[in-house]
Here is the input.
Amino acid sequence: MSVTQVSIALKPNVYNTFRNLVNTLSNTLGEYVDNAVQSYFDNKERLRSYEPNYKLQIKIIMDWEAKSLSVIDNAAGINEENYTRAFEPANIPENNAGLNEYGMGMKTASVWLADNWTVTTKALGENVERVTSFDLQKVTNEGREILEVDENQKPLEEHYTKIVLTNLSKNAPRTNAMEKVKKHLSSIYRVFLRTGEIEIYVNGEKLTSPEYRILNAPFYKNPGSDNILWKKEINLDAGRYKARGFLAILEEINQGENGLVLLRRGRVIVGGGDERFFPSCLFGSVGTFKYKRLFGELELEGFEVTFNKNGFKSEDDLQMLLEDIKRDISSEKNNIFMQAEGYRQRSKEKKEKIAQKIKKTLLEKVSDNLLFENKAKKDDENIKNTELIKKNENLINESKPAESYSEKFICDGKDCSINYELITETESTDLYSVQEHDGNYICKINLSHSFFDYYPQFKNSNGYEPLIKILMAFAKAELNAPSRGTKNPGNLRNLFNQYILES
Here is the structure.
């Protein structure tokens, strides 16, 4: 029996609401991955009977020239029995204990991403390839409830699904979003990637699961004792709800690696990618050593997830479960929380090695500078050139900000505010300026300064933050210096702006 039509019956305006759902690009692409992974697990033995060395491969391809997005997998395909259901909105699969439990993933994801999409699929063990196309404008404008299905003869052993999306929406990937997509998908599907059974590719790049080094050191109160691998296995049974996994301490503090990841059915629900999770009952306050060092993964059972699979519905019950985990760990004499907060030695050793590397780098720079004396003379001339200083100050002070940020601080014993303006002034050689305007303090920071072009860490926005913080502190120090007896504190800034050019 062939499939000639599928029903997509919904009121036309409902499809338009799919476009406006609050979602992320990674979670949306994850819907296609979920379907492929579930197809693999449902048909693992059959797939391997055809191909003994079979491995699931999922390929996400963004074609910038064609302005199309493709998701291709070699899972078992959509068979005749499930084909109609795959296109019917909210047709929940008979077995909803897997990753595609709501029966909406492919439909909502595709409408969210594009006006037009075509599904081409060939089910393992069937001799027919089926092709169905969806046109959002026709569906909504004409009130269509049926889509036609084309069938083509294919060998029994072939199996695949290919989804091609065109006329992409504003939600579709942009060039600067793909690295984040890779990171998030690597995080979300970490368990499956670790096993090696499943491979995910994004624009040809094979994704790998995040792996972190665990601290192996004595308990901080007994530094002479044997090393301990600071990983606490967790296996908690609270009746309806269960949690298994681990909490561990990072070998080295590294922003972006700390935090808790919550999984269900092997898939990350909370804490994947940049969306890290720090429940206070386990991690304490922001900025503490415990907060910075702890990380972990917990596979949860008994919890329902939200429609977009980016959260758990029973937040109160989840909090109680985490509190139970905290109590169990805290009862241990030398527990992981104490170690995370109290351990210091390895950090000191790391900093000593960093100091050695810094010295080496600085020595290399000096040895390369064959014109040191001439350079120093030029530096001195520029520092004494008041006209040049004034010109650079005027240029940076008159530059319009790309973005700005304000904060409160105490200046000369009074509550004051300062506005930090991020500018892109290419003519001025000043890195930053401080001025007073109509009773308000302004600090301008020049992102087009050559200093930012010299060092590779400034290739992305996160690399700027430490230096920006230092310049913000310099600005507040300059404004407070006169009340502490310092004369002409702006001279220090002028000197700094000159010397930083040569660093």
